[in-house]
Structure formats: C-alpha cells, structure tokens
Amino acid sequence: IRSDHDKNRSLRYSVTGPGADQPPNGIFTIDPISGELSVNKPLDREHIPNFHLRAHAVDLNGNQVENPIDIVINVIDMNDNRPEFTHQIWNGTVPEGSKPGTFVMTVTSIDKDDPKTANGMLRYKILSQNPESPSSNMFTINNKTGGIITVAAGLDREKVPQYTLIIQATDMEGNPMYGLSNTATAVIRVTDINDNPPEFTAEMFFGEVPENAVNVIVANLSVTDKDQPNTPAWNAVYKITGGDPTGRFSVPTDPTTNEGLVTVVKPIDYEISRTYVLTVEARNEVPLARGIHSPRQSTATVSIRVKDVNESPYFDPNPKLIKLEEGMMPESTLTIFTAQDPDRYMEQTIRYSKLSDPANWLMIDQNTGRIKTIAILDRESPYVKNSLYNATFLATDNGEKKASGTGTLQIYLVDINDNAPKVFPQEAEICEKPEPNAINITALDGDLIPNAGPFAFELAHRPSDVRRNWTITRISGEYAQMSLKIGYLESGIYEVPIIITDSGNLPMSNTSYLRIKVCQCDMNGDCTDQQHIMAAGLGTGAIISILLCIIILLILVLMFVVWMKRRDKERQAKQLLIDPEDDVRDNILKYDEEGGGEEDQDYDLSQLQQPDTLEPDAIKPVGIRRLDERPLHPEPQYPMRSAAPHPGDIGDFINEGLKAADNDPTAPPYDSLLVFDYEGSGSTAGSLSSLNSSSSGGDQDYDYLNDWGPRFRKLADMYGGSDD
C-alpha cells in the first residue's frame, strides 16, 4: 500500500478491521514505513471466507494525508475436507418382486469445501452388495444425487429378506487420484407382499360332535404360509364352500395359531343327518399379488360324524288349548296330552306326570297321557285368569340318562250361571226422613254376561215391616234405589233383606242384607252423627294383634321380676361374704361419704318427723366426742329445751332449733345450723372406737397390717408393735 504523498514527506501506514486490530486480532499486519501487508496466521476458508480491512496513511505528526481505503481479502479454497455422510447407516425398504427401476432410497453427503469448485463436487458409487443373490448388481445409485434404485428383477423376501450396500462419496468430481472420499452403509429391507397363498397341511380333516350341541369346536384346520407372520398376507381366512347348505357350521380363525376352528353354530339332529362333509377354502386377509393363483392345497375336506344322544320328549302342540264348560264333575276325561320321542333309533317308553296344577283339579295317566278331573272346574277360581286355566305336565323317557320335556295344557272355561248376585254396597246411610236423599245400590255377580245383569231387585216379604218401611225402585238393569216409604223412621241400624235375580238361562236368586244406618241429617242431607257402621265383632287380625301385645307385656313383667330377684340375691351374697366385725377395711369409713352401703341408706324418717318420741338413750348427749377425735374449739354448752309437742314436720323442728341457737349467746353463728340433737338410728358398720380400746381385741395379732401397704402404716405402728 503506498501513497503518492510519500515522495516529499515521510508517511506511516496502518490497517484496521476484523483480522487486524479487531477479533480475530493479528492475522494481518502492515509495515508502517513500506506499507507491505502480510498474513501472520493460517487461514481457513470454511471458518472465515473473506476479510474486510481499511488502510490509513498519516504523516509523522499523525495528520491524515489521504482518505482511508477499503481492502477486501478473499480466502481461496483448498481441498482440505473429506465428504461426510449425514448418517453412517441408512435404512430403506423395497417390496419383494419389484420391477427394475423401482426407487428405494436416497443417501446424502456434505463437503465443507466450496461447492462451486471441484473441491466440493461429490460423486457416489456402490462399492459392495451383500448378499450377492440372485445377482451381485441388484441396485444402482445416481452418482450425483445419491438415489438408489433397483436394476434387476428377482427380489424375494422369503429367500433374501435384507441387503447391505457400502456407499462411497468422493469429491473432486469423483477423481480417485486427487479426490477425498468417505463411506456409509445402506441397509435395504425387502418387504413382504402376498405372493404365497396359505396351504392346508392335510387334504382331509376329521371330527365328531354330539347332536344338539352348539358353539362346540369340531376340528382344527392347520395351514402353512411362507409370508411374514402376523401380517395381512399371512393371516388366514376360512370359508365353507360346500356341504353345509343350512349354515350349521362356521370356521373362525384362531388369532394365535392361525388355525381354522370348525364350530357348530346351529343344533344338529342325528335323526336327520349322521355325517357332514364340508369343503373349506383358506385365503389371506389381503388378495394375492398379481399373477399369483391359489393352488389345490388351499382347499381341504372336513368329515364330521354326529353322535346320537338321548333327547327330551316334546309335546305337540305346546301349549294345547281345549274349551270346556265350568262345573265339570270329577273323574271326567278332558283330553289326551301325549309327547313324542325324537330318538327314533332308541326303543324307549315315555311316562307322564303332573308338574304344575295350581288348583289341583287334574290328574294324568302315566302311561297313556289321558287327563281327567279330580275336582269341579270353577271359572270364578282365583287360579283362572281371563277364563284360562294353565296346567303343566312332564314327559320322561327311560333312557340310560333320562330326559324329560314339559307341555302346557290351557283350559278355556266357558261360563255357566253358577253364582247368585249379591247386593253392593253392603252398608249405607240414610236420613230419618225420606227427603232429601236415597240409596243407590247395584249387584255383584261372579258370572259373565249373559249370566249376570240385568238384575231384578225386590224387597223380601218378611219381616213384614220391611215393605212397610222401605221401598225399592229400579233405575236401570244394573242399579236400583232404596228409600224410606214412611215419613219418619227412628235412628238406628237396620238390616233390609233384598232379593236379587240375575238374567241367566236358569236365573239364580239370592237374598242379600243391606245394612242401613238411619240417622239425623243436616240441611245438606249428611248425617250429623259422625259414628259410622262398625262391625259387631273384631277381625282375626285385630284379635291376633291384641294377643301379641298381651304376650309381650307378660314377658316384660316376668323379666322385671327375675331381675329384681337376681338383684336381691346379689345383695344377700355381698352381706354373707363380708363380715363387718372381722374385716377392718369395712370398719374404716371415709368421713366425706354419705353412707356405708345400701343398708345405711335405710333411714327411719318417722324419727325425723316426731323427734319427741325418741328414747333418751338413743340421743347422743351434746358435747360427747370419740376418744381419738381431736377437738377443734371449745364446745358450747346449749341449754336444754323442751321438745315440741308433735311438730308433725321436720321443718318445724329445724326452725325451733335455729331459733334456740340464735338466742344462745355462747353459740358461734357459723356453727348454729350444723348442730343436731339426733344423729340417726345407728349404722350396721362397727365403730372405730375399738381401735383405741385395750378391752376389744387386745389379744389379737395385728402384724398383718404391715402387709397392707403404706396407707395402713400408721395403724401398723399403733397396734402391730410391742405392748408399749
């Protein structure tokens, strides 16, 4: 770099920019006097392909002589990088039987050198193929793009399922002398197509099945298929092409073994056909490849033998309907109800029996099936629904394993006039006077029309006052109206006999009693008496309820008595086990307790109500204390006062004691209510005063008190020591 101004003055040169005074620093330097620009470090085009510098020229004083100039330095590429494949192992697939020219896959390689020069121009080629079957050149590669295609026919997955190719990429346009190269592996997997049909392992298969069996596997059909297992080209589908016109068999596929399962889907009758010969064809889930045809081995024959079993007899028709008039007498023959035995090749006899006869009207002859009556048939029976009565009979053969079948006999009972009508309602209310109301009545008849209504209503002739007091008027064929005939009838309950006749071919009459309550009525014609007609006696349910209540009450009383007796026995047992004189633990009482047991609570309240009746010996003198009791303060001396003459109540007695204490100047005020002249009639517990008395128990040995623990240590010290 040189300036024209350096002829007459001395100049200094410098460069700035990336590679000079900016990162990467120090790559380029310039001689400040001669202006010679030099490179000090190796350059890498693949890292920085060019540099942009600026040159400066100044005089010795640092003044700018010329404007800065730009310098662009381009790095020239050299073939210093080998081609690199983006994957070291490439995977591809191609269907078997593919034609030449079928595209398989593309491999790619990258060279960091300049792709615009020969250093970055790559060429591909196949170095090797493994295995070399059926030809060593089954594939070729486009040397510029890296695309791999087939060049030969004969790809067969069943023979060669996979090919391995070594691919080479070379720069310098593939020049083996100057170019750099690298290799990668291409793995080509041959995919399966349905070019192998399934073939049966045998031409004939055999099986047997009992008649009437359903969903039973008869035979297993096995096939072989050279295609890839568990693919649509390998999975078998079976179809029956002959020998089963009624569709009694099917052949589903076992998903695990790929076998065909010959299965019975409809019952088979031995008496109709003893053997079946089926023709079964095997195919795949997908069609065979073009040009492939099913061989003879894809079809097999299945021979099935049917085994005879004892079948149940059957009634025909079932149910059987017969039509009869009700009222048929016992021992009357109704019909013959027989069953057929489907086992024509077995010599068997059939026995009949009754299975269901709700009303117990029928019987059947066990040999002939003749059905007779053993009771009168009644259409109005609760077991008859819509005039139909159903009875079920059983037919059983005498085979080695007995079989039975049922048949239903339906008897349609024709109605006859065998039920007399009854009045409805049976109870009613009416006012004492004929106005303003009457009673509408009808009749109930168990028979059907025309053996029921219309009805004829008539009052009975007796008693004589019926027709005198009442009148009946027909409203229609089903209804009539009852009303008072006289102007007034005394209140009460009347039973009016009414003769009702139906319209049967042989009419039936019946005298029904209508229970009428005659009562006083208000303006609206309603009874003012709210009591309605009640039944004279209690029903069975009410009587049973009352008896149950009485029994429960007696049980409760008995349980209470037993509990009381048991409680008394326990109390007596306690008294027998504990002797208050000998057990010192029972004699040591706590002062803060109200009593020592149940017996201490048995107070004589009569002594409290009349304290003047106490005996003088029973009253504890004022001021007397036990010998072992510590005095707290001087005892006041109360003056003797006369007892009240029968105060009758303890309150009066306490009030007098309170008044006397208030008037006593020597009594402390806080102690006046605590002083009582009567302590009670005594306690069954022994006194503790004997513990300090040498006269009671002086000869006893109290050393056992030492074994009772620390609470009895004081007593042990007092009585368990020496005579001191």
Automatic annotation (TrEMBL):
It comes from the Eukaryota. Pfam families: CADH_Y-type_LIR (PF01049), Cadherin (PF00028). Residues 594-603 have a biased composition (Acidic residues). Residues 1-25, 593-650, 681-700 are annotated as: Disordered. The chain crosses the membrane at residues 533-564. It is found in: Cell junction, Adherens junction; Cell junction, Desmosome; Cell membrane, Sarcolemma; Cell membrane. SUPFAM superfamilies: Cadherin-like. GO terms for molecular function: DNA binding. Residues 3-85, 86-200, 201-315, 316-423, 422-528 form the Cadherin domain. Residues 681-698 have a biased composition (Low complexity). PROSITE patterns: CADHERIN_1 (PS00232), CADHERIN_2 (PS50268). It is a single-pass type I membrane protein. Gene3D superfamilies: Cadherins, TCF3-CBD (Catenin binding domain). Keywords: Calcium, Cell adhesion, Cell junction, Cell membrane, Cleavage on pair of basic residues, DNA-binding, Glycoprotein, Membrane, Metal-binding, Repeat, Transmembrane, Transmembrane helix. Cadherins are calcium-dependent cell adhesion proteins. This is Chromodomain-helicase DNA-binding protein.
